[in-house]
Amino acid sequence: GVQTCALPIYPLGILASGFGSPLDGVGSLESTFIVSELNGITFGIAILGAVLGVFNTWQSWRRDRVKLRVQLRWLIWPTDRRIGIEITNDCFLSVTISGIGFSFPDTDQEMAIIPEFTSGEQLPLRLEPRASATAILPLTAENEITRHKIKSVWVKTACDKRFSGPVPAGN
């Protein structure tokens, strides 16, 4: 007759345990705790990495966008009193100012001006990061502004972005 040789079938953990396999002791309470603790630590590190990635993306977006602050100011000298527009570059990029003007309430009309600057420069004006400049309104523009109410003062950049600033009450 034909002889058959039947090999015993062992569970994988028992067969592999003699070879120092990572599957040693799988199923015991102690190893389950260690594996789940390591999974928890790995998961915590992954969550921390994701949060830091989102934070860095937000911070980089915020840092690399153009931000200008525009404010109407009274400029007072011993012999003269004029209206000025203070422009502050609040970002980390250089910005070129190409236009300055006013908006009027209840209408789409605006008035662009060609100002003088306290530093003697003219438009277009390049503002370096964290720098500011003050534009002095021409007397003709001042007369027009004092006769009408204005809604806001605006500044336009060379890349056609527009930034507005409030006008103090009483104007």
Spatial gap, N to C terminus:
116 Å
C-alpha Rg, in Å? Answer: 35 Å
Q: How much helicity do the residues have?
A: 25-40%
Record field, number of beta strands: 9
Largest sheet: 5 strands, antiparallel
Overall shape: it is: elongated
Beta-strand percentage range: 25-35%
Structural class: alpha+beta
Number of helices: 3
Your description of this structure?
This protein has helices at about 10-15, 30-65, 140-145, and strands at about 70-75, 80-90, 95-105, 110-115, 115, 125, 130-135, 150-155, 160-165. It is of the alpha+beta class. The strands form 2 sheets. Strands 3, 4, 6, 8 and 9 form a 5-stranded antiparallel sheet that branches. Strands 1-2-7-5 form a 4-stranded antiparallel sheet, with no helix packed on it. A hairpin with a 4-residue loop joins strand 1 and strand 2 (about 80-90).
What is the gist of this entry?
By secondary structure, the chain is of the alpha+beta class.
